[in-house]
Amino acid sequence: MSVKHAKPDFSPSQVSEIIKRLYNLTATEIRPLPSYDDQNFYVAPTEGGEFVLKIMNTEDSKNATIIELQTHAMSFLNQNGLPTQAVVPTTTGQLMSLEEVDCGYGCQKYLVRLFTHLPGVTISKVPLTPKLLYETGRTAARMDEVLQKMEHPHLSFLQRENFIWSLSNILLLEGYLGVLDGDPLQEVVKSVIHQYKNSVIPKRSNFRKCINHGDFNDLNVLVQPDDSHGYKISGILDFGDMNSGYYVNELAITIMYMMIEHPDPIEVAGPVLAGWESVFPLNEDEKDSLYVLVLSRFCQSLVLARYSVTLHPENEEYLMITSRKGIKILHQLWQLGKEHVEKVWFQRAAQFSERINGDIN
Residue 359 burial by CB count (10 A; 0-12/13-18/19+): exposed, middle or buried? Predict the structure, then answer.
């Protein structure tokens, strides 16, 4: 999202009115939930149950077909055993409603959907044990394998050639580098983009294609306690960045965001990679590109967060969550270099795969 005032700013009373009018539910509790460029609310009605109301920003609300595809994907994954939210239809049977509301910038149109509330907390709030990281990698790979089997008349809409958050579109970052003027980080980002051009793009013809969730991050994965004093994945949230991409892109995104939450980031990729390859082994070109793809996602996150803050300074705390830790990790990975980092990642993955049947806590 790159338009000022596109993010919704609904009041609790406006949310209450929508919940009643569209779903015939009387909200007794409404509280805001974090969101990058949309607006999410936890809703508990007197009629029972727990829900999440998602209000899309005005730009994404113009793309109803993409939103319908995302909703279909969530349903398809759920049917195939993955923990996604179910969409609650309106009283007239619609899965979404286009609402014209004045949030202080004049009347604008926002797509609204109501989801079931999934149990658990975000994975960012629990210790990232090797076992949980393995399960995260395994779940991400299973998700992409299932999505690749999905049928829909408008799958071509997921190509999203100019979508800035697609890991296939790293070169688009060059148009945003001005936000880093005077910051030493700018040179690192330029170097990573150069590496992407020279070492990733020539290999992409050998990457296996799939549909990516595109944002399998530490705030979009829910966990709850399991039976062995650890945690299991209980929810996959936010399909707003779904796009046609490559399996290795999803893996790189998953590794990058799990690094953000770990006290020793370089140790993250081993168990995530082992979990991923238990479902979908990488080929040589995918393995050789993983380091640069992980760095590229750090660059996307850092540059676009900085840019978004210029548009939405009031949302700076949420927008800069990744940046605070991410800058340090990006510098560390860049300084260690591709050869050293890959050696650690792939050795740890091999070691972990050998002992997954033992006590891995």
Answer: exposed
Least Cα distance to 255 among 137, 356, 337 occurs for 137
Cα distances (angstroms) measured from residue 269 to each of 94, 133, 186, 293, 357:
41, 8, 25, 13, 19
Q: Name residue 29's beta-bridge partners.
A: 44
Q: Catalytic residue at 215?
A: yes
Report residue 326 as tokens. 């991410």
The single residue listed with the structure tokens 């709030």 is 125
Question: 168: Cβ–Cβ under 8 A, 6 or more apart, which residues?
Answer: 204, 243, 245, 246, 249
Q: How many CB atoms lie within 10 A of CB 340?
A: 13
Paired strand residues for 283 = none
Element (H, E) at 87: strand 87-88
d(CA 81, CA 210): 19
Burial (0-12, 13-18, 19+ Cβ within 10 Å), 250? buried
DSSP string, 271-287: HHHHHHHTTS---HHHH
List per-residue pLDDT tens for the chain, 361 residues long.
Answer: 445 557 898 999 999 999 999 999 999 999 998 887 899 999 999 999 999 999 999 999 999 999 999 999 999 999 999 999 999 999 999 999 999 988 877 889 999 999 999 999 999 999 999 999 999 999 999 999 999 999 999 999 999 999 999 999 999 999 999 999 999 999 999 999 999 999 999 999 999 999 999 999 999 999 999 998 899 999 999 999 999 999 999 999 999 999 998 999 999 999 999 999 999 999 999 999 999 999 999 999 999 989 988 887 777 777 677 788 899 999 999 999 999 999 999 999 999 998 875 654 4
Rounded CA gap, 66 and 69, in Å?
5
Catalytic pick among 37, 38, 144, 215: 215
